[in-house]
Specification:
Number of domains: 4
Strand order of the largest sheet: 8-5-11-12
Helix content: 55-70%
CATH architecture of the largest domain: Up-down Bundle
Shape: elongated
Distance between the termini: 52 Å
Number of strands: 12
CATH superfamily of the largest domain: MFS general substrate transporter like domains
Length: 682
């Protein structure tokens, strides 16, 4: 490319500040706002599915991980479009517009007042909200994934070849903005979500929790556009991934065409591409394929890692976030991960790894990755132990074949109640039974008082009900209600609620107490008592695993592949993340394990099995130096060129002789036979 030959042409007539292109400041601000937008929306997403769209845990988890998987598949498409068609600048602009539209759609989908025609605080047309949110998530996945491989590379393009130091500093600041944006958004958006807002009725403010990230994405787009006149915009020069795919496909087809035994075998199946492609390219692809082969077991790590935003957040909703002066929201626990990342990375690089090296242990990158996977499995064992503790504090709701009943004495005098299969229960005046009674039949006989008054009570299967017992057992109807119990909550603390009640049933409940001088508060379901602090160990181990697995994995991959194949490895790495999220989707929908802790143990066991497989693959892997291999090929090509030159010299001499001979033959025609004899001697 012409500009590559003249490095300074890149920044010619462009503004500079302290030796840095002015354009990079717009790119850095754009990246900070975009990461804030993405991670802020993602932090509250699974709770939006569960509490706004009213999906169960499995469906919420499945859709969440489908979205994350798409976010890691679309970067491949974005890289191809940018390098082969639109260029990085136009790709970022167009897909950022798509991105912003998706964020706005998510914010609008969370406004319950749009379809709340009866103004009861609940959307009446849930299909509208589900459809709009799914469209929004699809646009966000296309936008965030499409620009992911472009922004950092576009920033690197702003520097000339003589600005290596400034370029390295830029990338450090760039990735600091990524972590800063994600950390701040994960703290702020859950706080916004916990507020109550609405036009006609007040509900959890998911609309504003999505609206702030949407506004940040619009800001990111505007900032990037403002710097348009200062950017160096390289023309599309083709995408190496397409060349690699074409070469591999040609090798496969050519091998299939020559599958007969009459054709001699070749050392490597990629050698069948030699008829069309350069040997150096084939050698580079071989090096990449060796690394990609090691990627096969890696998705299982991401299967566990990305459940921080789904299963672990849902787990936190059943825990107590009160830390005294600080109250943590369930979706804020995710901030522990970036905080630990910023802490553990320098500790591991400057203290742990050098100490291991001094002990004489050969802690290779592949061994680090194996240990990192094992750390992630330990994290899920911790999550399982925490879940067991939580289950001890949670109410047991009825299955589809069961019904649960609580007794509520509406009178002032104590009564005795006899239920089928249970001992006689003494119920004080204006009090409720301490626990729910579980039955497996739709109708039961209930005997109350002395002398006993017996009536047949119908129950709804799969639900909790409360039997309202009037003071006049013979004069009033015994009523079975399905209702939310009014729970006195700590400020901003999550709690469990029972089943819904109708307006008339609530009025009946309150009216029954109007004749009393006081109202007795009855605790229907106990508040969460398991502290969110119990999740800190699992976050520590999963983050330690991330540092040893992810950071080391990328460094290892880049060290084992040619410089022009980094994009291919990046695409392969992102693909493993996408596959890992699809595995969560499959397990969540198909496993259907009765207890959540058993699912955590299942994932931990699968990753341990993968650890053994990966360690075996790593044992047989031979580390290479791509630069040295490329140099050997180039040296061989140079030697071949020299041999061609040596072979061409006699041919040139012979041609020169023939040329001279031709001239002498003309002389023969002019000078006679004596000259002819001289030529013949020559």
């Amino acid at each position: 490319h012409a500009d590559k030959k003249d490095p300074e042409k890149k920044t010619k007539n462009k503004g500079k500040v302290f030796g840095y292109p002015l354009s990079i400041f717009f790119i850095v601000v754009n990246e900070f706002c975009e990461r804030f937008s993405y991670y802020g929306m993602r932090a509250v997403l699974v709770l939006y599915f569960k509490y706004f769209l009213l999906w169960d845990d499995d469906l919420a988890t499945s859709i969440y991980h489908t979205f994350v998987a798409l976010c890691y598949l679309t970067p491949i498409l974005g890289a191809i479009v940018a390098d082969s068609w639109l260029g990085k600048f136009k790709t970022i602009i167009y897909l950022s517009i798509v991105y912003a539209i998706g964020q706005v759609a998510m914010a609008v989908s969370a406004i319950h007042d749009i379809t709340d025609t009866d103004r009861d605080g609940k959307p009446d047309n849930m299909t509208f909200h589900v459809a709009l949110s799914m469209v929004g998530l699809l646009l966000i996945a296309l936008g965030t994934g499409g620009i992911k491989p472009c922004v950092a590379a576009f920033g690197g393009d702003q520097f000339s070849d003589s600005q290596d130091k400034q370029r390295r500093t830029f990338f450090s600041v760039f990735y600091l903005c990524i972590n800063g944006g994600s950390l701040l958004s994960t703290i702020i958006t859950p706080i916004i979500r916990a507020q109550e807002c609405g036009i006609h009725s007040k509900q959890s403010c998911y609309s504003l929790a999505f609206g702030v990230p949407a506004a940040l994405m619009v800001v990111a787009l505007l900032v990037f556009i403002v710097g348009s006149g200062m950017y160096y915009k390289a023309e599309p020069q083709g995408n190496i991934m397409l060349d690699v795919c074409k070469c591999i496909w040609f090798a496969i087809r050519n091998r299939y065409r020559h599958r007969s035994k009459q054709y001699p075998k070749r050392t490597h199946w990629m050698d069948w591409a030699e008829e069309k492609y350069d040997k150096l390219l084939i050698a580079q692809i071989k090096m990449v394929l060796k690394v990609l082969f090691l990627y096969i077991p890696l998705p299982m790590f991401w299967t566990l890692f990305d459940q921080k935003g789904s299963r672990w957040t849902l787990q936190a909703t059943t825990m107590d976030g009160d830390f005294g002066a600080l109250v943590i929201q369930p979706d804020q626990m995710q901030t522990v991960n970036p905080i630990l990342i910023l802490t553990l990375v320098p500790i591991m690089d400057s203290l742990v790894y050098p100490l291991i090296k001094k002990c004489g242990l050969n802690f290779t990158p592949l061994k680090r990755m194996t240990v990192g996977m094992f750390m992630a499995s330990i994290a899920f064992v911790c999550a399982a132990l925490v879940q067991i503790e939580i289950d001890k504090t949670l109410p047991v709701f009825p299955s589809a074949a069961q019904s649960q009943l609580k007794l509520l004495n509406m009178g002032n005098n104590p009564i005795t109640v006899q239920l089928p299969g249970n001992e006689t229960t003494e119920l004080p005046g204006t009090m409720a039974s301490l626990d729910y009674f579980t039955f497996e039949s739709e109708e039961i006989m209930v005997s109350i008082g002395t002398p006993a008054v017996t009536k047949l009570v119908s129950l709804a299967m799969g639900k909790r009900q409360t039997l309202l017992i009037p003071s006049d057992l013979l004069g009033k109807e015994w009523k079975c209600c399905h209702f939310y119990v009014l729970v006195k909550k700590k400020k901003k603390q999550s709690c469990w609620l029972g089943h819904t009640f109708t307006t008339t049933e609530l009025c009946f409940f309150i009216y029954s107490f109007q004749c009393l001088k006081s109202i007795t508060v009855v605790q229907d379901i106990k508040p969460n008592t398991a502290s969110m602090a119990l999740q800190i160990p699992q976050y520590f181990f999963i983050t330690l695993g991330e540092v040893m697995f992810s950071v080391t994995g990328l460094e290892f991959s880049y060290s084992q592949a040619p410089s022009n194949m980094k994009a291919v490895l990046q695409a392969g790495w992102l693909f493993t993340v996408a596959v890992g999220n699809f595995i969560v989707l499959i397990v969540a929908e198909l496993a259907k394990l009765p207890k959540q802790w058993t699912e955590y143990v299942l994932f931990a066991s699968l990753l341990v099995a993968v650890c053994f497989i990966f360690s075996g693959m790593a044992y047989f892997y031979t580390y290479i130096d791509p630069t040295e291999i490329e140099a050997q090929f180039k040296k061989k090509d140079d030697e071949d060129d020299d041999d061609d030159d040596q072979k061409s010299k006699p041919q040139k001499a012979e041609m020169e002789m023939v040329k001279r001979g031709s001239v002498n033959e003309n002389d023969i025609n002019q000078d006679g036979a004596g000259r002819e004899r001289k030529v013949m001697r020559e």
